Amino acid sequence: MFISKLVAPIATLILCLGEGNVVEAITAAAFAATSFDYIIVGGGTAGLVVANRLSANPHIKVGVLEAGTSGLDDPIIYTPGKVGWAVGTQYDWGFNTEPQPELGNRPLFYSRGKALGGSSAINFYVWMRGNKPDYDAWAELGNPGWDFNSMIPYFKKPETFNPPTPLHATNFKLDYDAADHGTSGPINTCYSTQYSGAHQHWHETLEHLGVPRRDTFGGSNWGVWTGLTSVNPTNRTRSYSASEYYRPYSGRPNLHVLTEAMVLKVIIQNVGGHHTATGVQFRHGGVTHTANAGAEVILSAGTIQSPQLLELSGVGTSTHLTPHGISVKVHSPHVGENLQDRIMNVLLYEIDPTVANQSPLKDPVVLAAAETEYETSHTGLLTVLPNDFAYVPLHYLLNETYTNHLRSLVVGTDDRTLNIKSKLNHSLALGSMEYVFDPNILFQVGDPEPTKEYGTIFQMLQYPFSTGHIHITSSSADVHPKIDPKYFEGNGQIDMLTMAEGLKFADSIARQSPLSSIILGRVVPPEPAPGTETDWLEFVKENTVSDWHPIGTCAMNGGGIHKGVVDERLRVHGVKKLRVVDASVIPVQISSHLQGTVYAIAEKGADMILQDFECKRRRRRGRR
Ligand SMILES: Cc1cc2nc3c(=O)[nH]c(=O)nc-3n(C[C@H](O)[C@H](O)[C@H](O)COP(=O)(O)OP(=O)(O)OC[C@H]3O[C@@H](n4cnc5c(N)ncnc54)[C@H](O)[C@@H]3O)c2cc1C
Ligand SMILES: *[C@@H]1O[C@H](CO)[C@@H](O)[C@H](O)[C@H]1NC(C)=O
Ligand SMILES: *[C@@H]1O[C@H](CO)[C@@H](O)[C@H](O)[C@H]1NC(C)=O
Ligand SMILES: *[C@@H]1O[C@H](CO)[C@@H](O)[C@H](O)[C@H]1NC(C)=O
């Protein structure tokens, strides 16, 4: 299904640590015997940010439990040109959704990172942020402090932006304003030095379709642009939470990270009449342990597993807990609900073989040469990433009558629905649909012939109505929860109709010069017979997949436990000393790939945790 299966790379895990990079090992027994202040569940994107910021205070003892292996130093994780290869490997939980009735009953593959760094270890390196109204909506839903302007310092804090030379910026059409970026954060961002042969055509093609070149980090992201990537500029390796927030700090005596440690549940006890998180139960090497946290337990297990762990710990509803023998400690009706994911369609074109980028790597001789070049000089095919992007407002895809018709189909008047509905507006300049071109097959679709080269146009809907849920199907943490995104159900039918219209625009990109000069013909879906037209609606139903940006299952949604799972300080309603810090707290989708926003959430979350720690310390001192 994925390129990893196509080219079968051999994932060799070599743990060779350079000087100053000593990864401190702790045994499971020692971890369980330690009195931590904070235990973080999941050493993923957000979890390692929080671990880093808290343990910067030498008086705070932090423990992190990560189910995956390290993954540090595995080329499949750190090599940009191997983008996508770790999907479906040992570094992926490999979830599947329930069969989706509106998608021909297909279950969809649902990738999630399982390693230090979590999904930031296997993601596709895109670094960006959403529109000002996207975050302002979070605040409007009842979460003060989460509007765009308040978030700016947290967007910048994780980042060190490495600007290109003016000549490079001109040659490769890089539009940016350095003032929108961070200058001293752990994650390095930079533009690629080498591009696919198609890159030179991309901007002009979209400009011919009326989409202008724009800088996209200042609160408005629509336009055509070259992607910024989370890559170290010196050696062209992945810059992610494990390599930047954890490894250089792994020698801190007050920070302990245990990998291959599966958390089974949070221990919630009655302390002074309040449900209180006091620690976690985890399994390592077949042995179950308990670890204690004096200050807080922080769930950073991601959008799928943070709600799973809440339910396993007795936070949820009797409907979902009682059948599995779990008694409800805290009735919290939104745990696992409000799952919103991004949906994607993939069009495949046969292209001029001279512009293909990754598929030459299918040839073991080419791959070996590229690996040598990459390891010795950090150049070549293995530094090339997909970075031809366009975020396009609705009026490029839909006529006004049709937009108004779609809006008239929306059912429901809850705040979240009204927010998404407000974006279904012909006059708004918001990047409602994302298009990416890459001269490569990142997702195997159709029946590609080995002697030909292919290019892909991806289309991804940014403000979906489809809303589903995640719930446990067993009392065991090892059994994957049921993931039902309910794509195209209910108001989700509007997503389906929008995707179908959008694909006409996607196809027009391929037919527009100068990109059309390297495209030999459409392969998926096949060119229609003369006198007929492609049935895009049918295509959407049969071919839509997830592009793996789920949010919302532990949403902060204002209005207390009857509206959301956590409050605006990310504290779980109904349980003391328990927070969620990861993508699951996002209440409503943003027009953007998520990692930059998840890092920002984690930085802001860490700040709030440290503030609360200080307050408590002062109060304790005051009492003495
Ligand atoms: C294939 C893929 C490509 C993507 N591409 C991009 C991109 O190019 N740009 C972008 O901005 N975003 C991208 N994303 C999205 C982005 O990477 C994620 O939204 C983000 O990393 C999620 O961070 P998180 O902290 O919420 O969860 P994660 O980073 O997934 O962290 C959760 C961690 O918890 C661990 N865990 C879970 N359950 C347990 C348990 N019971 N016990 C112990 N540990 C546990 C997991 O192993 C994992 O390490 C992509 C995502 C995927 C999957
Ligand atoms: C690449 O460089 C970064 C930053 O200097 C460093 O942390 C990392 O270990 C290097 N990676 C490899 C594989 O050399
Ligand atoms: C608007 O778009 C819809 C959907 O494609 C189409 O059926 C309709 O004819 C269009 N209307 C106008 C006025 O172009
Ligand atoms: C669409 O957006 C415009 C511009 O913000 C606004 O004036 C108009 O009221 C909106 N239309 C609807 C139906 O919400």
Can you describe this structure?
This protein has 624 residues and is of the alpha/beta class. It folds into two domains: 23-162 and 236-340 and 469-486 and 550-624, FAD/NAD(P)-binding domain (3-Layer(bba) Sandwich), CATH 3.50.50.60; 192-232 and 343-357 and 386-461 and 488-543, Glucose Oxidase, domain 3, CATH 3.30.560.10. Strands 1, 2, 10, 11, 12, 13 and 24 form a seven-stranded mixed sheet that branches. Strands 8, 16, 17, 18, 19, 22 and 23 form a seven-stranded antiparallel sheet that branches. Helix 11 (318-321) links the parallel strand 14 (315-316) and strand 15 (330-331). One 2-acetamido-2-deoxy-beta-D-glucopyranose binds next to loops.
What structural keywords apply?
27% helix, GMC_OxRtase_C, 624 residues, alpha/beta, 17 helices, 2 domains, binds 2-acetamido-2-deoxy-beta-D-glucopyranose, GMC_OxRdtase, single chain
In short:
With 624 residues, the protein is α/β, with parallel strands linked by helices.
**What is the radius of gyration computed over CA atoms, rounded to a whole number of angstroms?**
24 Å
Bound molecules: flavin-adenine dinucleotide, 2-acetamido-2-deoxy-beta-D-glucopyranose
Task: Report the uncertain regions.
Answer: 1-22
State the helix count. 17
The CATH architecture of the largest domain can be named as 3-Layer(bba) Sandwich
Structural domains: how many = 2
The H-level CATH homologous superfamily of the largest domain, spelled out, is FAD/NAD(P)-binding domain
In total, how many beta strands?
24
Cofactor: FAD
Organism: Arthrobotrys conoides
InterPro entries: FAD/NAD-bd_sf, GMC_OxRdtase, GMC_OxRdtase_N, GMC_OxRtase_C
Keywords: FAD, Flavoprotein, Oxidoreductase, Signal
